[in-house]
Every structure is written in structure tokens, then in C-alpha cells.
Write a structure and sequence with these properties.
Largest sheet of chain A: 9 strands, mixed
GO molecular function, one term (chains A, B): D-serine ammonia-lyase activity
CATH class of the largest domain in chain A: Alpha Beta
Order of helices and strands of chain A: HEHEHEHEHEHHEHEHEEHEEEEEEHEE
Oligomer: homodimer
Number of helices of chain A: 11
GO biological process, one term (chains A, B): D-serine catabolic process
Structural class of chain A: alpha/beta
Protein name (chains A, B): D-TA family PLP-dependent enzyme
Strand content of chain A: 15-25%
Helix content of chain A: 25-40%
Number of strands of chain A: 17
Family (chains A, B): Belongs to the DSD1 family.
InterPro entries (chains A, B): Ala_racemase_N, D-amino_acid_metab_enzyme, D-ser_dehydrat-like_dom, D-ser_dehydrat-like_sf, PLP-binding_barrel
Number of domains of chain A: 2
Radius of gyration of chain A: 22 Å
């Protein structure tokens, strides 16, 4: 079965097509903004999910205080589109990056994250190029085990190092607590705060992160802002985490069934180059087919999605166009130059993914 | 430890950077061409790996007979660059695709694959637009369980259907045998060949596929051509399959160590948006770090590669630039707009990945 909208998408654009419902996008933006407002923290959405200045402007218009980027290239695209107050939540290293960061800081309010002295030693270059201080927040790891210092003592030492360095200014702390680790983050923050205050420093940014953390927004006493990203589109992981419903999933991949070589098998024209092999933290299969939820996207070739139909009573036919909610929406958007915008059953137009491919 | 070339790449382009060694590219092209020549089959390389007209021209100049594409969008880019004789090895469905396929057929020699009557019923549209017959090969599955008819009887029936349809012409059979399934493919082909000959048809294309199948090239009696793709760059999967050495791996991702938050952990600036979560058919970790082969790229965030360093005697420092052979090179290239070309220790320039993002 092909919905009327799916037939229109296939006719006008072909498949696979990445489609976003702007009614749902706007609803997601409004809901998370309201939750941040209610919690008394500023919303600084992470644009790594959508990579679109137009959508960033919608987030700012709804009340977001600036944005978060993961790469300088993303920040350059956003600043060129007039978005100010950008946090690059990443350790940036090297002369090439410092030159670009300095140029960016000359045009927009920019803060970066750092978790070690090597990174901090390079950052003054950017401040010198811009002729004004670059703000730096210290990334603190409270259980996620990616970047971030592991102890308040290290955070305090780095804060002092930043304060003693020309061209950069200590701005505060950046956290990305695990969903059940907010008490741990609180203890870390309280100790780090006491330490920097003893050194005569005061944080103005205390940032928490994550769409799956939306139920926890505001729980860190002293937090000033939150950095949710995926909520603008949502995906199978967000539904699994209990922070979104299927109706909140604003992005769907439309794909045609191109083969039914055997009774229990089918082939979609969306493979790992469209949906990615992201396992979504252990979900079954590589996406949910809304039209055939019992079907399993069992494995991939690059341009083939191999369907296991053994559990399906009603099975898709060759030529059917189906709608898929991906496991992880951010990595899907990262591969496409544009998405098709719809509202309900109507096609609205094309949205370029302007910061796509900005891997540095 | 950072090699002098890695330092230059980081200085001139920043990291992560996708780097190809043109000496290795040319050597890989020559070796596989020679193997096809020796086996007496034409080489029709699959451009899904590199997505670059410049590299396709190198393959043709070395002796390749045409190319293989997986998507019309890829074929459009290649035809615009003057590449003729294109096999699109995929079931194409829908009016939008038929209009583009017809336009393409007006400019270049094009053959497509089909494995079912629904696909075949649509193809005459393209022939009618072009004013000449579209060649069609029947995709046959002999064990891989993706697209392809499962029995010679079905293949024979489809051949007759194609022959009876206006605007399209039966051209032959397309196989992608499993590496240990060439005897199965031979039996399938012999029976299908006898069947179509009994119907007065003669195949002119009998195509086999796959870089991991290079040791088997020519083993299918009656094969006219082979479609290897990954061999131009190679990757960890090809090395694991025994068809390439590390020195044959022409593409490497250069990445900076941006954090060493704990003694046993490190963070690369290459995450799932650079290396992808492709497990490479069950390899340990998500790429081999040539400079630290005992390190494991254990898991990803989108822009973080999380290193497990427990097995390393010598551990990378923050700021080190390392070289990574990805698990699966094709999906890495699919995310980048350009690659950096080098020869040995010298940077040659930038190569656009012109057919990147052509998902339809």
C-alpha cells in the first residue's frame, strides 16, 4: 500500500527521498522550547541534527538562545546565515582550525569547549586573530566516557589555566550527563564551582545536553542552558528512549520496494548509503517501516535494504512506496544535500542541508 | 607520532580528512585490469566506490569496457563527463526514473538490470523517450539473497518477456556469486542459457561481480565481463577477505586525537559521520589505525571516535594525527564532497566526489 503523499513524493522526486513534515518540526521546536522555558534554562539547540540555517532560525525565533555546533564548518555556515551566539561543543586543535575559528570569532559570538591543556594552549591564536577574547567552557564527563575531564579537580585546574591565558576567557562548564546520572553531575558541578570561585572565577555558562535528557532539564541546580539536538526530527532511538512518539517523528525516508525475489524477502531502494548501519543502540533492524511495522530491515547492501517479511500478514508489493523512521536521524541527514518538506499530505518544497558534509 | 605527510594534511586541510594515494589507486587499477585481461573477461568497474568521473576515466584508459553504476544519478554524472557504456545494475521503477533514464539513453549506451515483471513493464517508457532500445540484463541470485531471480526458470521467463516488449532488448544475465558459490552460478547460468537459446535468444552480456571475487574472475564459463568496485581503494574488509594487503589500501582517513580523558581512553575527531558504523562483516572495531594497530576504535558518537587503548604500549597523545583504514571504504566516500590526493609523501591536490549524494 502506498499513501497518496508517498505516491506524490515518488512521482515528483523519486525514491529514496528524505522527507520532513514541517508541522511536526514546528511542534517539536515549540514543545522543547516550552520545556526549557518551564525549567528556567535557556535552550541552545544542537544543529548537528538538521544542519540547516533555516531551521536554526526557526529555533531561535521560537526562543532559543543561540545554537550549538560540533564542527567549525557547521558554525561557518550558520554564522554566514546570520545566526549569532554559537557554542562549538568540541575540542578544536591545529593552526588551520585556529585561523578559521579566529575569522569566525570576528563575525559572531563564539564559545568553544576544551578538556585538556593541549587544546587550551592553541586557542589564544584564534582570540588574537579576532582581536577579542574567545570564550571557553570546560567539558566535564560524568559517566558517558567520551570527551571531558573526569574529575572536578582537573576542571578547576583547566579553568585557572584558561583565566591565565591571553586571548581566551573562562566561561563555565559543559556537561552531557547520562540519563540516570544527574546526581553525579550535580556533585561534580558543585565541587568544580566551589573550586573556581575560590580562584575568583564565576561561570556564566553551565550547559547540559541531549534530547533523551529532556525529562531531566533543569535538574542540575546552577545550569543555565540545555543543548538538545535530535528532538527537532526525532527517530526510533528517541521513541525507544521514551522521549518521543511515532507522531513526533518529523523525518521519514520514503523508499520503493524494488524486488520480491522470494515470498519471505523483499528489497528496498534504501540501503546503508541512505539509512546507515547505525544500530540505534541495539534496536532490531535498521528502521521502522510505518506501513509494515512487522517487516524487519534485516541487513544492507549499500543501495539495498533487505527485508525479512516472515512476520508480515500483509506483504508489500514491488512498486510500493513505504515510509521508514530511521534508527538515528542525524546520520541520515548527514548524507543528503536536501530534504523534501511537507505539511500533512501536501508537498511544500525543498530544503537544502547547507551544513552537510562539513566534517571539519 | 604524526608522519610528515599527516602533519602537512592537518596543516593544509585540517582533520578529519579523507586522503587517497594516487600511486596506489593506479596500481590497483592496473592489477585488476590485468587480472581481467588474463581471465579473458572485460572489466566493467563499479564506480559506487569512488563516485568520481576522473577516476572512471583512469579505469577506462587502463582498459575497462564501460562502467557500472547503482543509481541513475551516478550514471548521469558519469555520462555528462563523457563516460559511455554504462550498466546500471539495479531495478529501476517509476515515471520519474523512466524519464531520466530515457534522457540518459539518448546520450549514452545504457543497460539496466531487472529481476521482476513490474520493473520490466516500466522500462519501455525509457526506450520510447530515447527512440532506441534500452538493453536489459536479468539479475540472477545464486546465494547472496539480495535482488535477483532465484531460479533459471524465472530468468528464462523474464528473458522472453523482455524480448516480447517494445523499446527494450534482452542483453543477458547479471550475477554476483558468493565467493564460494561459483559452481552454483555455473549450473544456474547453463540452464538459463539453454532456456533462452531454445527461445531463440542469445546473451551478449554475462556479468559477474565483486572485488572479493577477483580470485574467481573467469571461472564462470560463458562470462563476458566482471564488475569489481572496491578494489580501486580497498579497505579493511578486502584485507580480511584476502584480496588486498594494507599497502593496497589507497584511501585512509586522517584524524586528530583530540582528547585523552583517561589513561586507557582517547578520542578521535572522526566519528560515525566520518567512518560510519559499518561493522565490516564482523570486524573488531570501526577501522584500523595504522600508527597504533593495537588501539581499538571501540564505539562512536557522531563526531567522536572512542579509542580503547588498553592493548597499546605506545599510546597516542592529544594533537597526534593518525591514519585510519576504514572497515568499508564505499560508505565513507559517500559522505564527503572531496578527497585529498597524495602520491607517497606529497600532496597532489583535491579530487571532487562528483557523484556523491546521488541517492536516486
Amino acid at each position: 500500500m502506498t499513501t497518496p503523499l508517498a505516491a506524490k513524493i515518488a512521482r515528483d522526486y523519486g525514491t529514496p527521498a528524505v522527507v520532513i513534515d514541517m508541522d511536526r518540526v514546528e511542534r517539536n521546536i515549540a514543545r522543547v522550547q516550552a520545556a526549557c522555558d518551564a525549567a528556567g534554562v535557556r535552550n541552545r539547540p544542537h544543529i548537528k541534527t538538521h544542519k540547516s540555517p533555516e531551521l536554526a532560525r526557526l529555533q531561535v525565533a521560537a526562543g532559543a538562545k543561540g545554537i550549538t555546533c560540533q564542527k567549525i564548518g557547521e558554525a561557518e555556515v550558520m554564522a554566514a546565515a546570520g545566526i549569532d551566539d554559537i557554542l562549538i561543543s568540541y575540542n578544536l586543535i591545529g593552526d588551520e582550525k585556529m585561523a578559521r575559528l579566529g575569522a569566525l570569532l570576528g563575525k559572531a559570538e563564539v564559545t568553544v569547549a576544551a578538556d585538556n591543556p593541549v587544546v587550551i594552549a592553541g586557542l589564544p591564536q584564534a582570540g588574537a586573530i579576532a582581536g577579542r577574547d574567545l570564550g571557553v567552557v570546560i567539558e566535564c564527563d560524568t559517566g558517558r566516557k567520551r570527551a571531558g575531564v573526569e574529575t572536578p579537580g582537573e576542571a578547576i585546574e583547566l579553568a585557572k589555566l584558561i583565566a591565565a591565558s591571553p586571548g581566551i576567557a573562562f566561561k563555565g562548564f559543559m556537561f552531557y550527563p547520562t540519563e540516570d546520572g544527574w546526581a553525579v553531575a550535580q556533585r561534580f558541578f558543585d565541587e568544580a564551582l566551589a573550586g573556581v570561585r575560590a580562584a575568583g572565577l564565576e561561570p556564566t555558562i553551565v550547559s547540559t545536553g541531549g534530547s533523551p535528557n529532556m525529562p531531566n532539564v533543569g535538574k542540575l541546580k546552577g545550569a543555565t542552558e540545555h543543548r538538545p539536538g535530535t528532538y527537532i526530527y526525532n527517530d526510533r532511538m528517541q521513541v525507544a528512549a521514551g522521549v518521543a512518539t511515532w507522531d513526533d517523528c518529523a523525518l521519514q525516508v520514503y523508499s520503493t520496494v524494488v524486488s520480491r525475489a522470494a515470498a519471505d524477502r523483499g528489497i528496498l531502494d534504501a540501503g546503508s548509503k541512505t539509512l546507515t548501519a547505525d544500530p540505534g543502540g541495539g534496536l532490531e533492524g535498521f528502521g521502522l517501516i510505518l506501513d509494515h511495522p512487522e517487516a524487519k530491515i534485516a541487513r544492507f547492501a549499500e543501495e539495498h535494504g533487505m527485508l525479512d517479511l516472515t512476520r508480515c500478514n500483509e506483504r508489500p508489493k514491488v512498486g510500493d512506496v513505504v515510509r521508514i523512521v530511521p534508527n538515528h536521524v542525524c546520520v541520515v541527514v548527514n548524507m543528503v544535500d536536501e530534504v523534501v518538506m511537507v505539511r500533512g499530505d501536501e508537498i511544500v518544497g525543498i530544503l537544502p542541508v547547507a551544513a552537510r558534509g562539513k566534517l571539519r
